[in-house]
Amino acid sequence: MWLIYPLIMLFGIFFYVGWQGWRSTKPWLSPKGQMLFVALFAILNLLPTLLQFLGGRFSPTLYAWGTKLQFWQIIALACLVFFTATVHLLSFIAIRVLGIQTLTQPIWSLVALVAVLVASFSTLAWGHSIALNIQTTPYEIQLFGEVSQEKTYKLAVISDLHLGYIHDKEHLKRMVDAVLATQPDLVLVVGDLLHSDFEPFQEQNMATEWARLQAPFGVYVVLGNHDAYSGKSSLMLDQLTVAGITVAQDKSFLIDDQFILVGRQDKGGMRSGNPIQRATLNDLLKNLPENVPTVVMDHQPTRLYETSQTGLADLLLSGHTHAGQFWPITWATDRIYEVNYGYKKVDNTHVIVTSGIGTWGPDFRLGSISEIALITLKVSPQP
Known about the structure:
Shape: elongated
Helix content: 40-55%
CATH topology of the largest domain: Purple Acid Phosphatase, chain A, domain 2
Order of helices and strands: HHHHEEHEHHEHHEEEHEHEHEEE
Low-confidence stretches: none
Strand content: 15-25%
Mean pLDDT: 88
Structural class: alpha/beta
CATH architecture of the largest domain: 4-Layer Sandwich
Number of helices: 12
């Protein structure tokens, strides 16, 4: 029943965009041309769903193309609605308030349509280029503990790869190359390795790319909410283990006798609405040295006080937010999460939230970046 409301909204968006396009071109088209416009608009909007339907029965390649087109369709429609509404507002001000009546002539409707199309597809191209440009964001963190000497480590932290039909093996290769270029001592992957389907991971043998991802002190992964959506995350973890990746989910590791790395089970609660029971930090730190700095990997940066107030986590690493990925969601997530992106100290815990190396849906960002959070971690004896 709840699906009715999104479908009604989607139909409303299709109708609004199509109606405005038809209204702008109507004076310049014959009746047959108008019918052709309506037919082409309908076909273009139904094409992603049609490809998914056919691909699900006959061809994984068709399904992949349908999925890619569907996500780009969503972003394109959002741009078209935004710029169309902007043009309407400006037209209202110009005609009704300023009295510029020449703008009521049909030619200006056509000019406005062209302007909307140029602005929309320029925005798509710009956002696409931003998403493809993987940047390195540096941080410097110093932790103290009962260690014999001072040592420095380079941690490459990535999150939200969203591998699947959109971000395929070629995308993964580009991500792995970018991480290896930083020459890290450890690689920490903080959840959402998959988008929602395990099948592309297996069909494209993505584990071979993961096997290239190596670091002197290891590569560690925990899962995120999107990994759970696949229903087959355990199969992915089996393949990653064979590829030499360490699964850190609900586990703890003593790294170089200098600090403890803790990997936490994701909180859950996204689609199910129910939080997942998971081991406490106290449980995960049993039988490990005390008074040694602790680095925690936890996909979602929610309820930070639960981690910070224990006094057990010195550095908390999260992803999940994508820093909103694109405006206006960037504005919303900045108000939803205590730390939407970047660094903040909460109680005595250093918190770093990365915007992710991949994206939800297509490679498209506005107001955020695709990144590797490169942390220079200095572990020193207690002063």
